[in-house]
Design brief:
This protein has 277 residues and is of the alpha/beta class. The chain has helices at residues 40-46, 74-87, 100-112, 136-146, 154-163, 170-178, 193-205, 233-247, 261-264, 266-276, and strands at 2-8, 11-18, 25-29, 51-55, 93-98, 116-122, 150-151, 180-183, 186-189, 221-225, 250-253. An 8-stranded mixed sheet has the order 1-2-4-3-5-6-10-11, with helices on both faces.
């Protein structure tokens, strides 16, 4: 694993890479509040066969936030992402994304599909805000508060903010260290409330459902859908069926997996990549 910075526009972007430069490229984009190490277990399993490139998105990890809120809107993010791809001198790639990263990936595909060889969406891109039942301002305000909360110890941060009762491995603990911001003896989430609020507002403004039918049907795209908690299964099933009809993509239901599907069951993602790419 190597980590470095590149300049894209007016910000320095933190990049994590695994594998050899002469291999096929998997480009990874994490979800809201995560970092490039979100995909660490998958990358470690595949680094002998692929070049895996993962970034800290703006306002996450060691990448500075955008100076203006409108830059988190999907059209701008898609164009910004293409600039980043050019700086990295990547001509074509496989797109692996999680949660909010999958929303961004769909808007990227809508503009630059010719560069993408295939796409795997990890429980993201299909959860429309129209049927979410919470207003834009309510959800944005929640994220702004949530990202500003803190705990007093590292163990409490791991228990409350990162893992809960889910599995822990040495690699995931490395990823967890990326998620913490230590200030004045307090542990905060690394992404700040203003970033979370800006992203939520952009997701309400730019609905992926509006571009489903514009996406290329020739692209090999699959959504790996979570099933936990069971209380949200009806909403997930409805939204996934709308996504499947609109995009023509394949949807695979992963039993016993939460929204952090790639942490709960990384082998499902690894197997999907090996079989498809």
């Amino acid at each position: 694993m190597k980590r470095y910075f590149i300049q894209v526009g007016d910000i320095d972007v933190h990049v994590t890479e695994w594998g050899s430069v002469d291999k096929s490229i998997i480009f990874c984009l994490h979800g809201l509040g995560s970092t490039s190490l979100s995909f660490i277990e998958i990358a470690e399993a595949l680094e002998n066969d692929y070049r895996i490139v993962s970034i800290d998105a703006p306002g996450h990890g060691k990448t500075a936030a955008f100076p203006h809120s409108e830059k988190y809107e999907m059209a701008f993010l898609a164009d910004w992402l293409d600039c980043l791809i050019k700086v990295l001198e990547i001509d074509n790639f496989y797109f692996l994304s999680h949660s909010w990263g999958s929303f961004v990936s769909l808007f990227y595909l809508n503009r630059y599909a010719e560069k993408v060889l295939g796409a795997i969406l990890i429980d993201g891109g299909y959860q429309t805000k129209r049927r979410f039942g919470v207003s834009m301002e309510e959800e944005a305000a929640f994220q702004e508060r949530d990202f500003e909360e803190h705990v007093d110890t590292w163990d409490e941060f791991l228990d409350v903010a990162v893992f809960g009762e889910s599995r822990r491995t040495p690699s995931l603990l490395t990823a967890a260290r990326d998620l913490a911001l230590l200030e004045d003896g307090k542990y905060y989430w690394h992404a700040r409330g203003v970033t979370g609020g800006n992203i939520i507002r952009a997701m309400h403004k730019d609905e992926t459902e509006d571009i489903y039918e514009e996406l290329p049907r020739s692209l090999d795209m699959v959504l790996l859908r979570a099933t936990l908690p069971e209380s949200r299964e009806a909403d997930r099933s409805l939204n996934a069926s709308i996504f499947e009809r609109g995009t023509g993509a394949e949807v695979k239901v992963v039993s016993g997996a939460s929204h952090m599907l790639h942490w709960d069951d990384p082998e499902v993602v690894i197997r999907e990549i090996k079989e498809r790419w």
